[in-house]
Amino acid sequence: MERREILRLLACAAVAPLQTPPSRDGLTLPKGATIRTVLRDVSPDTLTRATLFHEHLSFEWARVAPQSNRSGPAKDVAPVLEQLDVAAAEGVGCIVDAGTNDVGRDNDLLRQIASRTSVHIVACGGLYMERTYPQDVAVKSEDQIADDLVSDANAARYGAFGEIGETPNAPMSAAERKVFRAVGRAHLRNHLPIFTHNAYGTGPNVPKDAGLRQLDAFESVGVSPGRVAIGHSCCLDDPSAEAVKEIAKRGAYVGFDRVTGGLVPDDKKVAMILAFLDAGYIDRLLLSSDYNFTARSDARPGYGITLTVFAPKLRKAGVTDEMLRRITIDNPRRFLAFVPAS
User: Is a pLDDT exceeding 70 seen at residue 70?
Assistant: First the structure.
């Protein structure tokens, strides 16, 4: 047997995939809504397994953190495919690759991966944060940056703009606000959803309302909050979930996209989620792990850890399988679904 098949069988033996009964009510989506993968557009109704809205399949650490000795991921698709086989056996049906133009996202690599796995792959684009921006961003207008983003999205088949971020340990800079607004302007032209990188958990100087300020920047150019997910919200140590409830109250999604990692332990993340759910915001929650196997101390398959490690902790805390189905299946496909501009 090939190594990939052995790993897949071991995963099936180790964990049962999340139960995914069809929704009684179905999804309510605009006519013509689709989810754009790197290979083709797919109907949201066909994604009946979990979607991870923020992971990394193509990422060059040297661009993001020059001081790092991480090289990953290798351009060889074989080890990535091994991990995706395991993730598929664990219940994963779709992964959003959170790579942007300025961190070395490799669309050709994504297409090679997607053509050889059962897991749907959604590509992203945009600009990560000021320290990684191309030099010409400083002299371009918001509309010029938006023009570039729309052109890139068409050429590379983006399914979302993300992860759009800001520099750690500081409020959003003027350049970053310009880029956020430019991404918003691009969204108004092609309707792609947007998700962000938030600096929560990177140090003591990150404002607690940073997620709300990101939302402000998008709304300032006319973006509906319901087309935005504020990322890394789980890295905010906020037991009562007051900050993320305010984000959801405005209609945006809240991304708990560093589960099983980061400075805030999982038990605190679970407590935050329970407070969030108790407030009635189950349809605004997205889960993912921000996983990149070359960034881990070991090379174990791990793209499914949202389902295999974190979801059991939620179940133990009282979150039902039906609730988990809504969170891991319905919410991300509702977030990713868009009506292409004519």
Answer: no
